[in-house]
Design a protein that fits this description.
The strands form 2 sheets. A 4-stranded mixed β-sheet has the order 1-2-3-7. With 84 residues, the protein is of the alpha+beta class. It is built from 2 helices and 7 strands, in the order βββαβββαβ. The protein has one domain: NE0471 N-terminal domain-like. The longest helix has 11 residues. The radius of gyration is 12 Å and the shape is globular. β5 and β6 form a beta hairpin.
């Protein structure tokens, strides 16, 4: 799919750069206020940097992931996706 993530680079400021299958590129940034519940472990920078791609989806250990279609839509429109 066009929204499959094919390249991922995490940054220490709880953000990442992604590239999708169609070549679209952008930034995803997590605000601390979004990191609760299932996303709570992402507050730890070492854990956040353990992100990897699983079949085009940004994933972390423990079955944590983010929806690539929503990410694609926001990045296509705004160049970035800020999770608040």
């Amino acid at each position: 799919m066009e929204w499959d993530v094919v390249e991922l680079a995490t940054d220490s400021d709880l953000s990442m750069q992604v590239r999708f299958a169609d070549g679209t590129r952008g930034k995803v940034r997590f605000e601390l206020s979004h990191l609760f519940g299932v996303f709570e472990p992402l507050k730890e920078p070492d854990f956040f940097c353990r992100a990897y791609l699983d079949s085009g989806v940004v994933t972390w250990p423990g079955d944590i992931d983010i929806a690539p279609d929503a990410m694609y839509r926001e990045i296509k429109q705004h160049g970035q996706w800020v999770l608040r």
